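User: Run a structure prediction on this.
Assistant: Running it now.
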Amino acid sequence: MSKEKIRKDDKNFRRDVIKAKMKYRKRRAYIILSVCLVLLTLTLVRTYFYSKEKRRLEETLQNQENQISQLQTENKVNEVIINKLKDPYFITDFVRQEYALSYDGEIIFNLPIGENYLKNASKSIMFDNLDEKLANIDKSKQINESIIKKPDEKKNDKKSEKEKKSDE
């Protein structure tokens, strides 16, 4: 009888041990899955915030690149204008336009202009090819006195051109 009892207890004990192991394995699996789920959630949250920050930085970078390109264009225009202001003919035309100056015997008609002469010149420069204009500019930055014509010389040149045309 004691052998049968031991066998029954042994079977019950084995069954209890197997149940306990199964319960332990289930609990361990739940714990491992819970930890993995928490780590996955943390990773996804960090990835979301990282991508959001990256997108914001890319937009900022794009805005700054646009601003840089706009400033470079303005810089090229300003270089062309600066070099044009070294040209005596441009200065003469500019002063005559802005301050309504004239040569002797000229009649000036004031027409309404929406913008001033320098703004119009800068706009016309912006719409032209700036690289060609920069290549054509004299790099010496010195004004050649011989090309400057005085107002009287300009009148004489115009008269002589008219006379040449009438002779032909």
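Helices lie at 2-85, 88-99, 117-127, 130-136, 151-167.
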